[in-house]
Amino acid sequence: MNRSFCLFALVIISLVLQSCKDEEPTPVPGKSSATITFDARWEGTPFQIQQVYLDDFGNRIRCDKFMNYFSFIKLVAEDGSEVLVKDFVLADYTGDNSYTAEVPSGKYTALKFGIGVDRDYNKDQDPAQYPSSSPLSVAGSQGMFWVWNTGYIFAKFEGKADTTGTAGVELLSPIAIHAGDDFSYRTFTSQPFNVTIDGANHVFAVHINVDRIFSPDQGNVVNIAQDAITHGGTNPDLTNNFMDNYLAAISLEP
Amino acid sequence: MRWFSVVGILFLVGCAESIQPTLTDSEWTGRVPAGFPEVVYPEDNKPTKLRVELGRRLFYDNRLSGDGSLHCGSCHVLSAAFTDGRTTSTGLHGIAGKRNAPTLVNLAWMKRLMMEGGVPTLETQALAPLHDSTEMAASVMPLLVKLNEDLLLKELTRAAYGRDSIDAYVVTRALACFQRTLMSGDGRYDRYKQGRKDQLNEKEVRGMNLFFSTRTHCSECHSGVFFTDMDYHNIGLAVEYADEGKARATHLPEDIGRFKTPTLRNIQLTSPYMHDGSIASLEEVITLYNQGGHEHPNKDNRIVPLGLTEEEQADLIAFLTTLTDWNFVQNKDLLPLMR
Predict the structure, then answer these.
(1) Which chain A residue's Cα is nearest to B143?
(2) How many domains does chain A fold into?
(3) Smaller CB count within 10 Å for chain A: N or C?
(4) Which residues on B lie below 8 Å from A143 (Cβ)?
């Protein structure tokens, strides 16, 4: 073995070792899992149905029903490819909204989903075509479907309010925000993150900060004292404002 | 008679639960009225005898309403061409409905359903009255539980749709299947058109000529063999519309007061008229048109004062009565069993 060959081999070995030191361990192709949880919060604490909250406009709000659809919950992998976690879910903030799926081991950089029902599955669709286990089915949609103008209700926020903000005053003003129609569909894409999932389950916690929906700090005013009723396009301004604020009220713990 | 074999088999099924029955389905052989176009059936819901029979049973089944007091036929009565004679229909617990019950004829050819056209198919439409709190106000899951206790219906479901239990798919498909068989096209006018000139008298012929004339424009919207263009028009029924019609679905101001043109077949039997049942008689309807309707920014520009004499108005009404299909409204195959 001559000296030049030994030198060449040393160079190659050192390059290989250097390369291994600088790089993250390459994820082993295989199955990991990801869980996406959705919860609702008011000023950082769990949002309770039928509890009275004071919003930033001075309205006392009691929510009796808060539900919404999410479409195509996906993780974005480092190479830009998207991994579907769940196609459709109907989140009801009275219980657990956790969705787990097997995902390839690897590095992920973003979470994205639609708020509402994707256009291709919304208008003129027949809920009876789905098995009852589907959130899009007749039973599974739990009333989140307009039967007279075929399409899904994307988000429903119902309750009562006292717009004087006076403690002890009976809440009499109805709130019925039923957002729907394709124009009110919104898409959430998280800020970039760097999460490696390798052989274990990783939880992504999505928080809906309900107080922010009803805050003047948001660009679009949803002030129950001024406007509290919409059924999709019957009040498009309120529908759009609600959905824009909803989108802005999402925070993620990746 | 064509139901006899089906009914007979079902009777045997009901009598002998211990015997595992096997129903055999076959092609629905009902006749499309002469001169009507071919029906394009949905791929997943082509009519068969048992599907239609299942749909008929469900149509007249009280279990489809929230408290078991109503069925589809409560507001859609055959003798009134599947209307109910009320201004607006009465739903569960006597709640007044929002609209006049529409006639159910020739639905197999209708492009969209509901007066604002918000529903694409008969299958999907079946959900509307079931869910509506002013109509049958049913919850789907309890309804299905009750239906699945019925061994006869389950057996029909197996044979008709190949499913072991009655689910929303079966209910909506079967109801749609039955409703597609409600074909009406055998009035005296139809026979006249087929060459039997003795079917219309002079007065009715004068009315027919007026109806199809550019003087009245009636047939421009009430067109074709179905006497509807299946489009939406504001006819100047009101100055303000509490029910905004097509605008409910589109949210467009120009659609306020536009409603789907109703068929005129069997119109003699379907009073009161208009989406809200606000006009009691055909005479008053003709008067409204003769006066050019009420002013509204969306009113169709063909709705103008017509200048019809009293005799001409009477002629028009006489013609409209020739669209009554007496064989249809007396067809026992369209009634519930045991009546």
Answers:
(1) A139
(2) 1
(3) N
(4) 131
